[in-house]
């Protein structure tokens, strides 16, 4: 069975996607800043701000779906906020 690693897997889209993938016979793993296993889903720790990631998360996964990033509806879209949204996705993706 193939394993899919989801960043942002605890969010609205990530939760729904994980359910769909599990129903289609994929193993699911999540990268999270907090240690918690929900619904029998393996959770690996990472901290994009510090450049930290559990290498086992990458080594044990066949696919990665990157959904992590600052919430687009959390604050008004100023020039500064737009840059935060972009940076939160690009820098965590680079990790």
What does this structure look like?
The chain is 35% helix and 24% strand. It contains three helices and five strands. The chain has helices at 12-23, 55-59, 79-94; strands at residues 3-7, 27-32, 42-47, 52-53, 63-66. A five-stranded mixed β-sheet has the order 4-3-2-1-5. The protein is globular. It starts with a strand and ends with a helix. The model has no long low-confidence stretch (mean pLDDT 91).
Strand order of the largest sheet: 4-3-2-1-5
Please tally the helical runs, counting DSSP H or I stretches of 4 or more residues.
Answer: 3
The arrangement of helices and strands along the chain is: EHEEEHEH
Low-confidence stretches: none
Mean pLDDT: 91
Number of strands: 5
What are its keywords?
single chain; 95 residues; alpha/beta; five-stranded mixed β-sheet; 3 helices; 35% helix
Architecture blueprint of SSEs:
Layout: E1 3-7, H1 12-23, E2 27-32, E3 42-47, E4 52-53, H2 55-59, E5 63-66, H3 79-94
Parallel strand pairs: 1-2, 1-5, 2-3
Antiparallel strand pairs: 3-4
Summarize the structure.
35% of the residues lie in helices and 24% in strands.
């Amino acid at each position: 069975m193939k394993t899919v690693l989801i960043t942002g897997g605890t969010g609205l889209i990530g939760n729904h996607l994980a359910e769909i993938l599990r129903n289609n016979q994929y193993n699911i793993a999540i990268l999270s800043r907090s240690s918690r296993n929900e619904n029998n889903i393996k959770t690996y720790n990472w901290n994009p701000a510090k450049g930290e990631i559990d290498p086992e998360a990458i080594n044990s996964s066949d696919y990665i779906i990157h959904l992590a990033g600052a919430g687009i509806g959390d604050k008004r879209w100023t020039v500064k906020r737009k840059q935060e949204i972009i940076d939160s996705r690009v820098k965590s993706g680079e990790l």
